[in-house]
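Form 7-S
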Amino acid sequence: MTNATVGDDVFEEDPTVSMLEKRMTEITGKERALFCVSGTMTNQLGIRTHLIQPPYSIICDRRSHVFQYEASGISYHTGAQTITLDPESGKNYITAELIQRHLILDDDVHHAPTQLICLENTLNGEIMPLDEIRYFYEYSSKKNISIGKRAQYKIAFRWCKTMECFCCHWNPNC
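Output:
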């Protein structure tokens, strides 16, 4: 790192960061990439980009990193109500069926409609099945709810041979 060529990445003058971001767009098949210095920063930026106009709520697993280990970042950066769920008996992850029962979908002025569901894969070493992820996307896209994800790419090759294939599973338009 001490020998890296550096510059101001705000003005796209840092060739090392630009090269990394370009490489990530190639690997993932995405239009753009953004380098963040920490997973927490990445999570908080990702969450905030999905929330446009308050009031809103977010649903996540009670054990999730974004809820447990990010210094109340969700409420601090977004003002969102966080609805936390525990997996049902016999499951190691929150299911789409469980989430459906806790969604706030009305436009009552007293409620904060659900605009984001945050998923983590893996969570405490448990892998959420690909079919469950696909079901989340099918259901949430019908309800106009975004899905945020904190994915550990070490599980990518359990499902896919490339990172682009893995990222595609998190995108209903793929």
